[in-house]
Amino acid sequence: MPKEDKVNVDAEGRVQCFDEFGFAIFEKDFEPENPRCHDYSYSISINHEHSAKEVGAWKRLLTNWDTLDQRFHTKLQRLMRNGVPKHFRCTLWKNLLGSESLEKSSHFSYKANLVAIREQMVDLGISEYGAEGNALQALSEALKTNNELKHSGHVDVNHIRQILLDLDRTYPTHNLYMGNGGPAREGKASLFRVLSLYARYNPTIGYCQGMSYIAGMLLMHMEEKDAFWCFAALIERQKYLQGYFDDKLSRIQRHAAVFEKLMKQRFPQLSEHIENHGLQPLMFVTPWFMCLFTNLTCWDTVLAIWDLILVDGVTTIFQVGLAIMKVAESRLLATDSLIKLLPQMLHLSNEIVQYDTLLPAIWETHIEKWEIHSLQAVIQEEKQLKERQSMKRRHKTDQEYSSPVVAKRAKHNSESVPTRNGSVLSKLTNMFVSTNETAETGGSTDQSKSLAHMRVAYHRHRNSPRKNITRRRSPRSLGAGSALRSPGLAKQLESNRKNVSPCEVANENSFQGDLSFSFATPVRRSPRIARLHGLLRDINTPSEKRLVSSKASVQHSFKMFHTPTPLRKSQRSPVQSNSTASPSFASPELELRPMQKLQ
Amino acid sequence: MGDNRQPLDSIDATYKILILGDSGVGKTCTICRFCDQKFHECYVTSIGLDCKQRVIDLDGSNVRLRVWDTAGQERFRTLTQSYYRGAMGIILMYDITNLVTFNHITKWIESIENMAPPDTCTVLVGNKCDKYLCRAVDEERGKKLAENFGLDFFEASCKSNINVDQVFQHIATKIKDIKDKRAKRFQRTASNVSLTHWSMESGSHETKVFKCSC
């Protein structure tokens, strides 16, 4: 096989110049591993001059930050459409992250801890500037020989080793971190200090790969100490990346699952295509989310994305992810193998991530916070259900093999035995149908058997903590967990009877229809059934009080139905004119606002 | 990406190969060297996983090697472990200039044993053997460890392109051997099954009993 042997060793010597954001532009015949795009479609310093009015507005906004009221959010967003002026970004980020308040409230002293870290470095025989091979070696010696360094207050040596390793691999083509020259040496050292101090600040998280990109980004814009507090705020605050870098990377996995669901909703064709080729969203979402999109090639886009993320938090991360999917959809659909799909997602091409293409797509994509919460609840519920089902199945098979009666029954066919994996509700309705059938054909023994089943199912249902169907006509027994069942809302619902979502009505009607159908058949004449009917009545009688099951999936679809989203464009305009506030649901409980007229 | 010189339709098999090892041992670099024939001095940290492929010639048949690059940090193991499934070959890598990465090999082997399919072919590779001046792990130690766990051992260097292709060629040959063996065994059992099936068919009552217990 012919082999072209390219050895790109001397990257630093091939740099032509640095672009406006500090990324190296190489000579034409030189190809770095992860090339950056230098053709900025929108860059604040060259193409766009902020008008004096805008600059004034920014100034006012940033100086009066503490006294701002609720309206500042819209103002900020309006201003941000034109980009954040370069010299305001540092202040804006600090204000958004609330790093100063974090610093004030924390007992952690930056200076004192820096001294402590330096002491530890000396003990280990390395320095913050010693990112070269011998430092790593000294570290491995230290790891081998003494473990007493792990005593309280010291940063885990493994974290230090990992940080040192990653210094050279963080923005390797950026002015601040490239090579071993003067500024890069200082840049890497400050990156090391921020990361190791964080590992000391929060030893349970320590250091995780991906953090270096975030800290590196912050250091490009602010002083080391500010960068540290901003970094801490970004990693620790619930609104931002809390839990992204923890020991099991649990939140990122959950978020990947949420992203998968969102994709299924918004781009059904694409998500099916991706799934067919064996590509899981977790594969490409991890680097996107964990590095906060810093691996996109166009830096002007990255900065704009960061501005948005810092304003709105985690929701924006999903928003950007979906916007990328939207822009890349046609390309991805045209690609038909995993091996081409995955690199395409990981190294998004310049055309996709250009400011002019991606940012409008991001602005057009709308995701509400509650959507993510409620999807998380749905995922959680599905997981639990799966676990429960597998447990039940195991239990059932055990039982089946142990009890001869059931085995005997299994020999007759499954007609009288309800399906195992259906909900209690479907079991019940199935039961009636099958009872009718057997009744009509005159199978009396089967009927009694299925009745016994029904009784069991009913009692099980009654005793189960998760009540799918809630009793009506007894407002006191209604669960407190659901705000939907509040009396005020019930009144509203009564008055707005016509506005009840069709899906709800349809659901209920179908269920009642099933029941009435079954009770209208000869079976009803059976005294036993009549007794059961009495039992069932209190859970199935229609009433004016609308009820939504506390199941997360039901709640989610309910909320989806009642929320104007881009998915339901028909709803958008009347709702926007009716109400200005966006719905704010706190998951998993339901908080419903007055229902909108859907016409 | 990969080597697209061969037309796709002439590919006889695709093997999934995983590269595992501590952070910074040169996993991404090895894949780049093998799949793109390139070497870069500066890489970025891999987060999550990446995948590249190359078609190689194996005893006259074209075999596509699909190589999965994984993040090395221990924390990412929860993410990457789910991709061990279906792996046919695993390249376990350490850095000969760094003893810690070598000491962690046993941990990696443990996780492979837990998560990977049982008949995966694993190769131990000591990378960066061009830096013999800073060597921290002797070749003998690597060999011994590999012997203990029944693995094959190589020392390689991506920078000087030593043994990189050989490692992949070797692992591909081994996977092929395993597959051939399995295919043979399957054929044998398949013929057995068809025989028993045929003999059972003749006796009506006993066939039923046999089927039920199945």
Give structural notes.
- The complex is a heterodimer of chains A (599) and B (214).
- Chain A has 599 residues and is mainly alpha-helical.
- In chain A, 60% of the residues lie in helices and 2% in strands.
- Chain A is built from 27 helices and three strands.
- Chain A has helices at 52-63, 72-80, 86-97, 99-105, 110-124, 133-145, 157-167, 182-201, 211-221, 224-236, 250-266, 268-276, 281-290, 299-312, 314-334, 338-346, 350-353, 355-364, 369-402, 404-411, 424-441, 444-463, 487-495, 502-520, 527-540, 552-562, 569-578, and strands at 6-8, 15-18, 24-26.
- In chain A, a hairpin with a 5-residue loop joins strand 2 (15-18) and strand 3.
- Chain A is globular, with a radius of gyration of 31 Å.
- Residues 1-9, 413-422, 433-450, 461-487, 493-524 and 567-599 of chain A have low confidence and may be disordered.
- With 214 residues, chain B is α/β, with parallel strands linked by helices.
- In chain B, 42% of the residues lie in helices and 24% in strands.
- Chain B is built from seven helices and seven strands; from the N terminus they run E-H-E-E-E-H-E-H-H-E-H-E-H-H.
- Chain B has helices at residues 27-36, 77-80, 99-103, 105-115, 139-149, 164-202, 204-213, and strands at 11-21, 38-40, 49-58, 61-70, 89-95, 121-127, 152-155.
- Chain B has a six-stranded mixed β-sheet, with helices on both faces.
- In chain B, helix 5 links the parallel strand 6 and strand 7.
- Chain B starts with 10 loop residues before the first strand and ends with a helix.
- The relative contact order of chain B is 0.15.
- At the A-B interface, strand 1, helix 6, helix 7, helix 13 and helix 16 of A face strand 2, strand 3 and helix 3 of B.
Mean pLDDT of chain B: 84
Numbering strands along the chain, what is their spatial order in the largest sheet of chain A? Answer: 2-3
Rg measurement of chain A, Å: 31 Å
Order of helices and strands of chain A: EEEHHHHHHHHHHHHHHHHHHHHHHHHHHH
- Termini separation of chain A comes to 67 Å
Number of strands of chain B: 7
Largest sheet of chain A: 2 strands, antiparallel
The span between the termini of chain B is 48 Å
Helix/sheet category of chain A: mainly alpha
Mean pLDDT of chain A, as a whole number? 73
Uncertain stretches of 5 or more adjacent residues of chain B: 1-6, 199-214
